[in-house]
Amino acid sequence: MGLTWLSSSISIVRGFSRLSSHHSRNHHWDVPKGHLAVYVGEEQKRRFVVPISYLEQPLFQKLLRQSEEEFGFDNPMGGLTFSCQEDVFNQLTAILNTF
C-alpha cells in the first residue's frame, strides 16, 4: 500500500515536472538534491523547498491529490502548487519533520 502511494506521488510530480519545463522563467535552480520546490498560498504564492521524503507521508500525499484535483497538471506557476494557507502548510511541515 505504501509503495502504491509513493508511486502515485511520483507520477504526480513527474507530470508537473514535464509541464513545468515549459515555464522555465519561473524556475529556480537552487533546489538542493533530494528536495523539491512547492508554491503555497491562496492568493499570493510563496515558494518553499521541502525534502522529497515528504512524498512518502500520507498528509503530504493528501495535499498532492488536492492539488492535482484543483490545478491538474497544467499549472500556470510551473510547479507544485498548494492553495492552502501558509500557516497551515507550516504546521504540516512541522508535523512531517517529527517523522
Automatic annotation (TrEMBL):
Any one biological process term the GO annotation gives: response to auxin
Pfam families, A to Z: Auxin_inducible
UniProt similarity note: Belongs to the ARG7 family.
PANTHER family tied to this protein: SAUR-LIKE AUXIN-RESPONSIVE PROTEIN FAMILY-RELATED
Name assigned to this protein: Small auxin-up RNA
Organism of origin: Helianthus annuus (Common sunflower)
Record lineage: Eukaryota, Viridiplantae, Streptophyta, Embryophyta, Tracheophyta
